[in-house]
Design a protein that fits this description.
The protein has 516 residues and is of the alpha/beta class. Helices cover 30% and strands 22% of the residues.
């Protein structure tokens, strides 16, 4: 046997021998094994195998033959067992399989929340380890949009992969999220920083989130969001909802001139002070229009307001806060450079603003309204932000705890423990009843009916107790005063014994059925 194995190894190591093998020769190893066990018999006396000629077919590719060639060093170290090219290819396949990331599928007592935010805020400190009804534990996976890739399907849901580094090595974490908290804007002015495909994938997989993925997608374009503010102003009036006037240009070709100067031009999805220019004349406006044309996006112009300070009103769940921000850097942009931030009491008008905006796109759990207070003493609402708004002020920790409580509340409503609707009476065996024996009192199951009254309720005695196997579908329970079979009250003659027996059986059945 040893000589046969050595011969087989020498033949497999030859290029001419393996090159003449048909395609797929090593694929069906089970068929080859059965064929060799029935047709080929090796002995020490006869080292050459008695086999039929190999069938002709297309030759294996050079890449495949390189995989099938044995490693000389490996052959010498693993003599008699792993010197074959076929087994070397199997080892390579197993090594590749081990390198693939494994999908984390937690049990029922573990719910994964995906937090999309930068590294400046560690949400694991606030969310990780929280309990849901003392049955589920929250596990946090945090990453930015740049580190996330995902696939979504109707059968397997969403599988998220996070690419990161640990001790200088690149690692990939793969898991199926149960909830999403989006704190980073999925779109910015940076090149290639448009991650709406991630939002679409999460929405495709039906992952719940704060705010809703539907509203987050609608916030991807500022003019689209501003259109909702116009609807609110028409409903409440310009006095209660003082929205600034704007002009929308689909491209730079339509930017001929502004109605008055100075104006502020916002290019594309401009926010956080980026992509905004102050234009003082017609010639500057034409220069800006050429830039908009080259950028291939839309633009918005609005009157420049000589502001004293900015006003920000935020709402997280049911908590309201209002801040005043005053620039000290002599910049017309109050949100850039150095500024002084001060918390002020929330007025009725501020509460009206943020409550009206929180109804946008089906409801916003986290929302902020920004306005400028002009030198004329009037407020002008300029924009609204969603759950990606930055947390500012001296009470940032309280705001983070409020967001944590909001997420926990949402997850508890979604992953509420399933109650066992079946009763013990429905599964208990039915005892045999004879004569006047009364059945044990059991609960009655009704479909599409009101819940049963408690035992001490006056109406509880109006519903009779029935055996556990009795079910009523879309109908009220029977009344004890009107049984299905009427009882005869007449006298029974001596020659009608069978009728009397039937009547007694009926009385026994009715008495047993209605627990009288």
């Amino acid at each position: 046997m040893q000589s046969a194995m050595n011969y087989f190894k020498r033949r497999l190591s030859e290029t001419n021998f393996t090159g003449n093998l048909p395609n797929g020769y090593f694929v069906d190893i089970e068929d080859n094994r059965r064929h060799s066990s029935t047709s080929n018999h090796f002995t020490d006396a006869d080292p050459s195998p008695r086999t039929t000629p190999l069938a002709t077919g297309p030759k294996a590719t050079d890449a495949t033959m390189q995989d099938l060639k044995p490693d000389p060093q490996s052959s010498s170290n693993n003599a008699g067992s792993s010197g074959f090219g076929f087994f070397s290819a199997l080892k390579s396949t197993n090594a590749i399989a081990k390198m693939r990331p494994k999908v984390d599928r937690p049990g029922e007592d573990n719910k994964i929340i995906l937090v999309i935010d930068d590294e400046h805020t560690d949400w694991k400190k606030h969310l990780h380890g929280l309990k849901l009804y003392d049955t589920c534990t929250i596990r946090v996976e945090q990453a930015s949009f740049q580190e996330i890739t995902l696939t979504a399907s109707t059968s397997h849901g969403v599988i998220v992969e996070i690419k990161g580094k640990h001790d200088g090595n690149s690692i990939i974490r793969s898991f199926k999220p149960h909830f999403v908290l989006v704190r980073q804007s999925p779109r910015s002015m940076a090149e290639g920083a448009d991650f709406r495909n991630i939002i679409i994938g999460l929405k495709f997989g039906g992952i719940p989130s704060v705010n809703s993925l539907h509203s987050i997608y609608n916030f991807l374009d500022r003019p689209w969001t501003f259109a909702q503010l116009i609807r609110i102003q028409k409903r409440l009036g310009s006095e209660k909802f003082p929205l600034i006037s704007q002009t929308f240009y689909p491209s730079g070709k339509e930017m001929l001139t502004a109605s008055s100067y100075p104006v502020v031009v916002k290019i594309g999805h401009a926010h956080n002070g980026n992509g905004k220019l102050k234009v003082d004349s017609y010639h500057q406006f034409q220069d800006v229009s050429s830039i908009v044309t080259m950028s291939g996006t839309y633009a918005i112009s609005e009157p420049f307001v000589d502001s004293k300070f900015d006003v920000r009103v935020q709402k997280i769940g049911g908590m309201y806060r209002a801040y005043v921000r005053t620039s000290i850097s002599n910049s017309w942009k109050a949100n850039t450079g150095s500024a002084v931030l001060e918390e002020i009491p929330v007025s009725d008008s501020h509460r009206l603003w943020v409550d009206a905006c929180s109804e946008m796109f089906g409801g916003l759990d986290i929302v902020a309204v920004k306005a400028v207070h002009g030198a004329d003493g009037k407020d002008y609402i300029i924009e609204v932000s969603d759950c990606t708004m930055p947390i500012v002020g001296e009470k940032q920790e309280e705001d983070k705890k409020m967001i944590t409580s909001l997420v926990q509340y949402k997850m508890q409503n979604i992953y509420r423990p399933k109650r066992n609707t079946g009763t013990a009476a429905e599964t208990a065996p039915i005892a045999k009843r004879t004569g006047q024996q009364k059945p044990a009192t059991r609960a009655m199951s009704y479909s599409n009916s009101a819940p049963a009254s408690p035992p001490d309720s006056p109406s509880a005695t109006s519903i009779p107790s029935v055996p556990a196997t009795t079910h009523y579908r879309n109908s009220a329970p029977p009344s004890p005063a009107s049984p299905k079979e009427p009882l005869s009250g007449g006298a029974v003659s001596d020659d009608s014994g069978s009728a009397a027996k039937i009547r007694d059986i009926r009385k026994s059945f009715v008495s047993s059925f209605f627990n009288e």
